[in-house]
Amino acid sequence: MLSRQQTREAMTAGEFTSWQRADGHRTVFLLDHATRLERQLLEAWLRDTNPDQAASGVSPAEVLSLRDSRRRFRQSAIQRIAELCEATPSPFFVPLRVLWIPAHGDRSARAHLKAFLAGDPRAPGPLRQRWILSRDPRRARPMAAEGATLGALQERFLRGHGRAPRDAMQLAEFVGRQAVLALERAEARSRGTRYKVPRLVAEEMLDRPALQEGLDALAAETGRTPAQARRYAGECLEEMAAVHSTFYLDLMAEFGRYLYTRGFDPEIDVPAADVQRIRELSRRRPLVFLMTHKSHLDGFLMITMLHDMDLPPLHTFGGINMGFPGLGTLGRRSGAVFIRRSFADDPIYKLVLRSYIDYLVEKRFPLLWALEGTRSRTGKLMPPRYGLLNYVVDSYVRSAAADVVLVPVAILYDQVPEVADYVAEARGVAKRPESASWFMKYVSGLHNPFGRIHVRFGAGVSLAEVLGPQRTDAAPTRLDLQKLAFQLAVQANGVTPVMASAMVTFVLLAHGQRALTRGELGRELRSLLSLVRLLGLPTTGDVDLASEEVMETVLGQLRHTGVVVAYEDGVTPVYAVPSDSATAAAYYRNSCVHFFVPSAIAELALQHVAEVEDAEPLQSFRAEALRIRDLLKFEFFFDEKDAFLDSIERELSLRAPDWRERLTGRTGAAELLASLDPLVAPGALRPFVDAHWVVADALLREDPAQPPSIKQFLKRCDALAQQRLRQRRIASEESASRGYLESALKLAEHRGLLEGDPQQLREGRRRFAEDLTTLARRIDRLTLLAEQRRTARDQIIEG
To answer: Cα 103–107–113 angle (5° rounding)?
Structure first.
């Protein structure tokens, strides 16, 4: 038994000191307790507060134990609730629970090994409860959630189910679930939004008429009885659904912190304005975070960040291959949703997944997955995947939520731990399968000084604003998804900051095998930085490369991982990217290359005007810019044609305000090009154009009467690229990277160059190769022009 002093101290710490009442109704207290001690605390609290309604002429209050020690509903309690629902006067239900407070409070408590061994401080076992109560009774706080009348609960059931309950028992089960959910909301308000966890997911979902009707319709289609279909749906839900625990939320947040701080600066570079905006937005609307995916650390990083921001727990989507014992258990208990890699032939699984996403969106739990569906192996944003996006959009149009805001998140690392793996995969090495042993090796490798992590949140895309009013009679079209995905990709690219490591690798790669002195590198970086400032591009805080300290740090990091090498035995040290590290260096450069593509295309279009006599040089410039855009549309995200032309002309106006007046013909175009500093086309586009040219060259050698096997053709492209690299006909090994070759092949397929009439294929492939040969030659001209300018500048400095 509890001592009177213990009881009084616990009661004094209670969340409520007076009971919410409803005149004319009989109060029914629903005690949600896991141990006998918790029931004693709640009953003592009830006695002390004396909820006596005799004066109002209503029957005395009744007390029911709602769930057992395993958190399952007591059948006796459900039966009694059913009886009360049919009794007079009608009941007013008040849920009660004991709130256990960690020794140092929720907001300062962090999960660590000691806490893990002792158990969850918010859900202590029976013995630990008594130990806590004997030392600090104030850590046990009785708590009441908002009560509800039977009539209000019946109305809530009708809104959610579209019909009245079939009997008193169904209504009683609903009342029990609503009591638990009300307690969870009250607990989340007390502990913090980060601990707002979904409860009774299976019970709520599987009771929904829409899901039941869908399962009944699919039963015959899948050769099952309705009962078998529902049982299988429950198995699917158990396999995919997260099972949250507040303790595991803390543990996962700390585990994520442990992982990224092994190799990175503990302080994440994220603007305070972004944090405040996302906090405010999450209070008003359901959020879906779509991150750019560079590393295995991304998901852990986001979980830790949003936990620290006191946002509701994330539901992160990943492949079921990541659900292996250990990490998979930790992930599932902290919000990971593991879904099958392929379920196109399983309509019940698809229905359950759709219903689960409906549920999460409706309950306003934030979702997270990779916008690209997988990690980028090239460093630049890949085409978005539509699978999960389609489910969320479908939930919105079917009115699962009033609105949903999709927020792109750009994640960048000064150096990415997996780059060596990406380089190996680019050379054709098979990806290593994930497993517990693989993960342990990965964690043990996180010990290099990789620099800082940079995170930026996009403005977000509101489905209500993009798709308009909800329409239950129409599913989203593929065009809807494509437009939405394009907006998200553009936003993600737009907020991606230019990093110092990206600028260093951009400059060094543009020089190929030519090493630069510290002075030469500094001048090139300052020139590029001037363009970055002129275009108003976002940057990380360390981009001031005029600082000797910053340059020393960045070069040191890149040298440590072998991306850059230095030769220091001469008169002055010189720096270069070794030939076998070009693909790794390109990974960092590609994080910012999209910013320079419009200016690069403008330079190549000016070079075209400088070579080809045309009576309308401006129209010739625009037509050539659109032709280059069409050649590179599977590599970069481009606006529609008019908007694209506006963007490149706007940027050109910043670089040369009088460019239209000077573009009078070949001579004017050449002089205009000579005045632009720096010339970015060689550094921004050369590797992609080279890869496209390799594919075009390989297609010319294929028999047009025989459609190529994609897998075998890519192998031949890779072999040809290696040959051209040794012949110095392409500039770098990165142009032989599998990702670049695959993008070029998609373009060829889009142009109908893989199969069809042999004569038309021959002619089409020839024109394709000529276009790319011309483009490569013009990049060579700009490279020569840039080199001549640098040589002249260096001579002036030396003189």
So the answer is: 60
